[in-house]
Amino acid sequence: MQINNCYLIFKNDFKKRKWWDWIIAHVTGAPPPYRFKGVVSFDHNFLNFSGYDQYLKENAEFSVNKDVFT
């Protein structure tokens, strides 16, 4: 299964956000807070991401083991 135009953010990334980011996301109809935008695919053991890292301004690819979610 594959999901296009997916937004991702990790818990630690919220520490880098400022109160102004919260206001913009809740008042202007902007997209939700995110660090990564791209394609997410799933297989039996992993969540796989391929896309762009907004903070580092570079392409990003990584996999997250399904055991992290349990």
Structure description:
The mean pLDDT is 86. It is built from one helix and four strands. It has 70 residues and is mainly beta. It has one domain. It has a four-stranded antiparallel sheet, with no helix packed on it.
What does the main sheet amount to?
4 strands, antiparallel
* Low-pLDDT residue intervals, each spanning 5 or more residues: none
Number of continuous helical runs: 1
Count the domains. Answer: 1
Question: What is the count of β-strands?
Answer: 4
Radius of gyration equals: 13 Å
Query: Rough shape?
Result: elongated
Secondary-structure topology with pairs:
Elements: E1 2-8, H1 19-27, E2 36-42, E3 46-53, E4 58-65
Antiparallel strand pairs: 1-2, 2-3, 3-4
Which features would summarize this protein structure in a list?
13% helix; 70 residues; mainly beta; elongated; 4-stranded antiparallel β-sheet
In short:
With 70 residues, this protein is mainly β. It has one domain (2-69).
